[in-house]
Protein 1
Amino acid sequence: MIKRVFDVVVSAAALLILSPFLLLIALSIRLDSPGPALFCGRRVGLNGVEFKLFKFRTMVEGADKLGPGITTGEDQRITRVGRFLRRTKLDELPQLINILCGDMSLVGPRPEDPRYVDLYTPEQRQILRVRPGITSPASIRYRDEQSQLTGSDWETHYINEVMPEKLSIDLQYVQNVSFWLDLRILFETLFALLH
């Protein structure tokens, strides 16, 4: 209950304080390429329930129909503004709305595309016992994940190496989840973003 109250208070305050900045980002996206400022993607959340994840659009309109669900380091669908937003992680800010809606938390395993969740083992599916988050121990460690996904066999590398390692890290979080651990992860995330 403390975690949920904290999530709501922080996300509501952040949306209020950052609203002029969020509008500026949205305007930059619209001026850079045709299409909406927000992207809604299907993700799997708490107890395996699918929800619409909000992000600032960083790719050309209709990119989800032009290529894979995971973005690689060489992806030509990324816009100029999108490259900056991805590098700084500012594209994730609209997920504060997902937190208010109860789909997500500030801290929790990153929500995954349903196509990849279908590949989880029964043990790996235990991460679905908690709300997904904007940040997690695995997302800090794999902050620059898309640069590792290069070459023609990037998806095999993701499925066989990156995804299992991320799930292993986040499973440790799920088994030890606490409010104080969440605070530590939030501070580690801020530190990682500033360096």
Note: The longest strand covers residues 38-44.
Protein 2
Amino acid sequence: MKKFFVYGLLASTLSFLFANATFAQNYVTPEPDYCLNQYNESTNPYYDFEFLGSKRKLNFKKGEKAEVTIYIKNTGSLPMFSDESECTKFRPITRLGTARERDRSSILFGHLPGWQSPNRIRLDQKRLNPGEKGSFTFVAQMPQEEGIYREYFDVVLEGKQWINKDFAINFDIGEYTSENRDYLKYINTSKRVSKEDLNGEKLIEVTIATQKMRLKVGDIVIREFPVSTGTYSHPTPRGHTRIILKQQVRVAGKWPHYIMPKWLGFRAGGYGIHALPSLSFDNGYYWTEARNHIGTRKSHGCIRLLPKDAEFTYNFASVGTQVWVR
């Protein structure tokens, strides 16, 4: 009798295990064909996009709720999937995220259509294939204070990566214009810009103690760059002057005839702001050495900049732009 009982118990146990094993096997859901990447094995898998533009009103009223659409093109080799896609358990969700500063709460956020959170906007298309154009549509809550609000955005694959190709959209609150709206191209953070800011004068400010240069429009700091000013024996003159001369390249009249690109002369006597100097006969040695000196007092009185910083400064400044050396 005990033998039959043991056999029966064993059979019941095995039946239970097999039933659960079958259940576990059936529980695994294969990825639907709709969610597959569908690219050749020889193709490099990557995400990328191109910002195409936006659709919005030219001017908004204070506190207005208004629809905004931002257009992109999928220039990567992988498809993008939205919150509404049935593929999000297999693929990362694609959203538009706030940038500069990244992941901060947008001043345009409201509990309104299109927003997933205060710093995320949903993709309109369930699936956006490589080469296709897509969009992010949302309703923005405009602030109560007039101004031009610059918002930076970037595409983010949640839990995987940011694309790191952020772009800016301007939102004009109030009916006004400014003669100096071109200054907006220098604003590289998400912020509000007032009429007073836009009408401010350009200024180049150099602090010798910190070896830093700041480019400003009114009170707005546009950029900050490291510099190399004059040595203690050949100091950079302090005080207030203005740019008196712009030259793409200046060659010093005295030996050894330094070559100084992006020249901005700011004081008589040969003092200028310029890119790293070089010599025509040393195979680039002096230029390399000068690069290592950025951030220290090493020039003969000029203000040296790294090449990209000098190009930006050259394009920013005009003859007459204020210069303060402190």
Note: The helical segments are 2-27, 195-198, 285-292, 307-316.
Protein 3
Amino acid sequence: MLTKRIIPCLDIKDGRTVKGVNFLELRDAGDPVELAQRYSEEGADELVFLDITATLEKRKTLVELVTRIAKHINIPFTVGGGIKTVDEIEELLKAGADKVSLNSSIVRDPDLINRASDAFGAQAIVAAVDAKKMNGSWNVFVKGGTEGTGLDALKWMKEVENRGAGEILLTSMDRDGTKSGFDLELLKKVNSMVSIPVIASGGAGTIQHCIDAVQLANSDAVLAASIFHFKEIEISDLKSEMANNQISVRI
């Protein structure tokens, strides 16, 4: 069995880590460099850094902050937010990111996935999908969850795989920040359709939620924010319980 990953997520706004509910009501969660360093020391397998208002405010991801964070950690690091071109991807990878997360830009220009994957390898390209259930199916949202696209999320995730994405970061907007558990129905459907790794995001509130995302929905990684930021769950405790449930994790 492949080792399952625990990934804290740093949502950045105005240089600070923030967390909200259903993409709204953001509150401060601390300094991103300090949090990144803490997670690296506590045994996180990877980090995700999302400049959540970059696309909305039509500006690039904070390259300087990426550089600072990269200097303080020794685990893989994914960066997203407002990335529109292959040149911007290259700039972030050179700044210290191991992977980039693409969302709004690839909906607008799907061929960007192909170009980026060809240039840097599929392992460096993460397709981020913000999905919301509407009328019985999941729709793709962009621009920090503020704009619906009408795209069917399941079909879109199959397309990003075919175009060369190496991983999918799937966030349930319905569950985001609610701590009511991951959207297992959505995760099961996606994991049965694609062969690339899927990171479960949106809804983590308990250790059991994380175990369910892996055991019941076959996710390759679980991503969470507030439960780690506010020390509601320690990464070491989560990994111990996952190991006790016969889930392979890096201890």
Note: The radius of gyration is 16 Å.
Protein 4
Amino acid sequence: MNTQRILSHFHESAELKIQSATVLAQPISQAIEMMFSALSNGNKILVCGNGGSAADAQHFAAELVGRFERERFPLPALALTTDTSILTAVANDYSYRDIFSKQVQAFGQAGDILLALSTSGNSANVMAAIEAALEREMRVVAMTGKGGGAIGKMLTDADVHICVPADRTARIQEVHLVTIHCICDGIDVALFGGDVNE
């Protein structure tokens, strides 16, 4: 295969990350503050998304329940993408649109956070989860791309929108991953201060 095509992937990804840093630093900082405040108050973070975003949801929850870069007590985060019995029962008995919202209704409480991932901003089941979260007086952090789609229009002033300025799904997902790592690091620093290597 032509290595130039491979190099173009790396260059495009790197350039978008640099471009996104300026645009996203402020909303990522707001998301960190919101999540740290919720965790400090004994609340939890629920996370959802489809496909690659489902993998990102599980990645984020694993970093909080386990650890990111330093030893600490487990933090309560739950990926709504992992229980196949719930997912298949709800999809079969109700609709695929309800697979996350039913879980938000079951597990979400006022003061909790929903981290909602959708590269298009138009995932119907993620939108339904946001609706359920807002009804339960939860705050929402939405990670999107492609202009934010319908999700961008659903959020309130109390929520945070991290919208990657790109249209290519793979590139959006790559920035979402860096964003997840920024949030995990920010939570650790808020908990313990300083740098992991200090």
Note: The mean pLDDT is 96.
